[in-house]
Amino acid sequence: MRKIALACMCLCWSIMALAQGKTVTGKVTDSKDGTGLPGVTVAVSGGAGTKTEIGGAYSVTVPANAKSLTFSFVGYETVTLSIPANGVLNVALAVAENKLDEVVVVGYGTQKRKDITGNIASVAGQEVANRPVQSFEQALGGRAAGVQISIPNGVLNNPPVIRVRGTNSISLSSQPLIVIDGVPVFSGDASGTDASGNALASINPNDIESIDISKDAAASAIYGSRAANGVIFVTTKRGKTGKAKVSLDSWVGFSKVFGLPNILNAQQYTDYKNEALQNQGTFNANTNAFYLTNGPDGKPINTNWYDYVYRTGIQHSHTVNVSGANEATRYYFSAGVTDQSGIIKRNDFRRISMLGNFDTKVGKMLTIGGKIQYSNELNEAAASSGSIPGAAFATAGLGRVPLITAPNVAPFNNDGTYNVSGQFIGVMNNRVGQVGFNNPAIALDQNRSNSENNRFLGNMFAELRPLSGLAIRTQYSVDYLNTENEIYLSPQSGEGFGSNGSATSSFANRKNWVWTTTAQYDFKVSSAHNFSVLGGVEQQRITAKSFGLNRIQVNDPNFTNIQGGWATPNTAGLGIGESYLVSEFGRLNYNFDKKYFISANIRRDGASQLGSDRKYGTFWGVSAGWEIANENFWATSKLSSIFSSMKLRGSYGRVGNIAGLGDFASLSTFGSGLYGQTGTLVFNQVGNNLLGWETSNKLDIGLNFGFLNDRITAELSYYNNDVDGLILNVPAPPSAGMPSSVPTNVGTMYNRGIEMAVNAQVIRKKNFSWSSSFNFNFNENEVTSLAPGLNRVLSSTSGLETVNITVPGSPVGSLFVTRTNGVDPATGRRIFINSQGREVFYQFRAASGFNFEYADGTRAPNVSSADAVVYKNTNPRFVGGWDNTFNFGNFSLNTLFTYQAGFYVYWGTYAGLRDQRFWNNSTDVLRRWQKPGDQTDMPKPYFGDNVSNGSAFPLDVNVFKGDFIKLRTAQLSYNLPQSVLGKAKISSARFYVSGNNLLILTKYPGPDPEVSSNGTGSTNQGVDRNSVGNARTITLGVNIGF
Amino acid sequence: MMKMKRILFNIAAATVLFQLASCKKDEFLNPVPTNQISDLSAFDSELRIEGQVKALYATIKNAGLYGGRLQVFNDIRGVDFVNERTNVVTGFDVYNYGPANSSGNSVEAVWSRAYYAINLANVFLAGMDSKGESVVGATKANAYRAEARLVRALCYHAMVNLYARPFWDGNGSKPGLPLRLTPNTGSANFDMARNTVAEVYTQILNDLNFAETNLPLTNANATQNVIRAHKNTAIAFKVRVLLGMRRYADVITEANKLVPATAPFVAPTGVRHALNAAFNTTFTNYTTVESILSMPFYSNEAPGTQNQLGFYYRHDSQAGGGAEYSVNPAGVFANAGWKAGDARRAQILTAASKPWLNKYTTAAPYTDWAPVLRYPEVLLSLAEAITRSTNTVDARAIALLNAVRGRSDASTVFVAGDFANADALADAIMIERRIEFLGEGLAGFDNTRLGLPLPAKPGVIAVPSTGQNYIWPIPASELQLNALMTDN
Questions:
Q1: Whether the predicted model's global pTM rises above the 0.90 cut
Q2: Do A675 and B31 touch (CB under 8 A)?
């Protein structure tokens, strides 16, 4: 076979040699830095050619009738240029950015993007490196079609909401599986304190080579029971052939909060609250009134509480790495340190990380290698941010405290001592009982709520290639994550006042091991039939233990940790868990002549969490692709002059989900506590022996095509994810007295949508180029059924407010609010619309008449959340991004816009901002109703009224459109020219300045519509309740290569 | 070379086979939690059976019931406290007489906690029938059943007073509560309509009668006599329940089992309940015979956040005080007959120019026991029942009133001439209850059983006994998930 080809080649050469020829000469250079490129293939189209020499020069003899030459080189764009009359043709080649030649990570292996029939989006590591983030996925927003990333708020290291093609679960997690270097790892918040501790922050983003996100069944079914929410594959860097390379990346950033609401100043507050007291009829100048207080400067105190809670955060980060490879051995070592202070005072993040990746060939058949990664992360806070799941109504939540604390009192008395009375801030001259909750200055000075992670991620592998095409590989991996939580509440602070101080420490130890063995055989039958077969077995076991101590009643104020002297020793944070997954899987890839592609995956999983008879499940995916452009008829058709490539592909499969299911969810158990100092036994969990997987069927149809020699490539997909078997924690009526809701395999839902990604090299000139990529995802979510007899599932925010509902026929987690119809111009009363559709006028003070009245003055039943309606969708229907890179000479400008649209947000904070208790208010209340005839949206204030504006139960007036476009990043960078670099003996140097969240276009009145007060919850999205704002960051950085 | 290849290949094949056949697979796939007991073995020993009985008390102690919150909710449905914090989490809406269906801390919490305890009792009773009795024998089994049924009765009583119209309204014909008497341990159709108020009361009395019959006369020691039920506990509760039904003759019958005809008033059988010499003793020594049932707290068995009685009622100048509710200066506090020297006045401190209840005095971790039922309640209930049923100024009723008053204020001795008629005596008894049980959770119960309006107080207008918000609404979650449920 090979001999024949050689003979043909020789024949061609001889034919050519005989032909009348001409000689073309020139030099091929890199378009970016102008250096000569050796080894570039220079050929007449369809004919023979030569290669450039060192320095890039070439000389080739071509037939006299040849019109053009084609220049091609691995990693660069192939160009075809016409031969000038003088026979001198110099070419500057641009680095290839067309994605089709990339290698893409799939489960248990890699494939060329060209050969892939599944749907996988890829993001290069450099896109997430050097960003002012704590974890890589925070920087993924807008980079990949069909992948929604939402940063919940400005709390450092708060895990972002990730949705791959919509929300795919109700009771379980909708976050994708994260696989790092082949290992499914811990993700989510590991912290047990007020500081968020996203486990994925262990990974230094600068160590990431690539991120591949598999979205359909073909791509993800190899992860079977965990594939329903998509799989994010992270590959860390490995050495590349060549001399040892050292590089240094450093940046420093400055961040500030943006979009904080405008609130009343001291004078406005005092006047407004007194007016509300007058309206309520309880104003009494001596015993019930608000007054200004003079500060140390003799002027009335006018405190801007934002100044005491927010700050300019400063972040810096440094990574140094060494990498290289020779024939036998590859290595990559890196060390990184980052120290970031957030926009909230005392909210800090520090990480040191070390990574070593290495592999070496032992003899001809065996490769061994491994990875060692250690990291230490400190997640620090002083007080509750009120912004992480469960904390929205924290009395001392720093998101809410500056909004509701009276501006006419100060954190300090005029003598410099804390202004505090009991647990709450002192009232100063005000003659009312309370003007705020905790004094935040004390907690921010004295308390701490820290969480420290120590994480080790490592693996060892051996790969044997006994025959050509056969690879047998076994890998053992561990992921150990130890978390130490430490909380101290000073007895002076409101948080620690009641307990006369409190110290809590707890330790959580989580261990995860994965042992994977695979065999892959690639072979051809004749030249056209290409096969790749994979089979494997895998086990994964996770064990977790946690324990701790809580101590209160401090003996001496100097003791601030549990080791000090305290009155009580009580337990804290006890927990135990284990889970196990045992799997067998296989994959077959086949292609005929690079035209027809077929792939099939199958995986059988056994999971310990499931019912005793339902442990095992089988999952599969099949897909097919057709590279139309490789067909002969295509080459001859007119279409080929328009499209440079064209591939049709489709996939279908069945995958599962168990993420977020309790380790012992299938068991009915009794727990033990104390009564009268002796042990009790209490029925505490209802299990389900028949509990099986959550299942979904995923269909994906796609078309990939390119124009202009793939200068423009595009990918269009339609998908339908039919979640036909949810696991629903079916709520029982509380009168059933069940200790827990029973996880049951009922309920259905779908996500359907269209995805589009376009990449274009818009301009490619020697000194100027513009590349652009745009992605778009339209997703429609609908719950189609719940359990028999169950027509709604309510989801609360921090257990206190229920504003999300999941009902068949609507998207998951829709807003559920009571309707209003403005403010009555005659009386200034809030008009509610009750469940009968009738208008009900509400007045907090009912000196005469009733609190709730119909228009005719007759008494109406109380309006409440019982009158709420399914109101608006919280799932963004349109999600995407637009990335542009402009290169001009040594300068480069990159901008990334991200957008989400077609969803609503409940700005619950705004209910608090108009609460008529002592709470400070939005300046919007200044347009309140004052006299008959006033047309306004702000009701007449009655002191104490927590109903009219939505504190008592959620109202439609606090629901707003969330659509936004953000300039997520804008980065201007400068590469030092080669001439300078040579003198400095460094190989590359790049300086940049970049901005994060510089611009946001939205009609949302709150700080940021990209928000989640409920973290990554599946059914309680779209809630902005007392969360801190988001950060706007400017960073300056440098990347140097030696 | 070939040999090497074969060895390596064999190693690889062995690895795969070893992994496939992993011996621990079954053990790992069927994990047993080491901090729980399986439902299959929960009745295997007396230790576990008695553990479940204690868990019933622990359940009504914790999170919103008899450990503190239920008392607070009943207190603030009266006139003697003023809300200071406008915090819905600590009952601002209950104080305003307007908690919503969805109010998580009151309407939802009390209902779900009480029904959880009821289901635990039902699970326990069924388990005793199927297994437990064979482990402990019939006598002990019935004593344990009696405790379970008493706890169930306490739960239904707590709820029927908040979520249903009082018994006097239509003589119990109004919608009551769904009576759940069988265990729920797995998925099922849980729809159940409300039984009538009368049916609920009948069940409560059945349970208490069973308890009276089968409970021991006394428990092992003074502590157990206070924290777990004995015969007199069941009788004392029947007094409260029957008083709520206005079955005064039956109140007298039951109370007479605990109260002799004349002073000294000491229970003649079982635990010898009597008044302590000093009023304050009851709140410092929690295990005296005056306490018929209390919920115990210890530093490692503390009430949860915002459930502690001391936190609610103490001013924050006192350690642990949360200053949630001050004493209403215009309430019983202003009663001229309540003299300055009354020992119960000593439990009211002035701070920030307001009076505050200082009955519960421990700071964090708040180890004051929560009183559920004290002997003076039996005395005053008996006095009231005699007065209302005979409609006379009865000497024994006066003696009972004097027993309570005289213990704290020896200078006041009521005589028949002090009362113009039976109503005046009844009013005096009601005043005495407000003074004696301030902060112990009887005010709301006393208002509704007598059909009194929920009283006007600072910032709040009165609610007539016909008002929709005279009682709590049914929880939103119950209305949504129980198709047969109806709201109030």
A1: no
A2: no
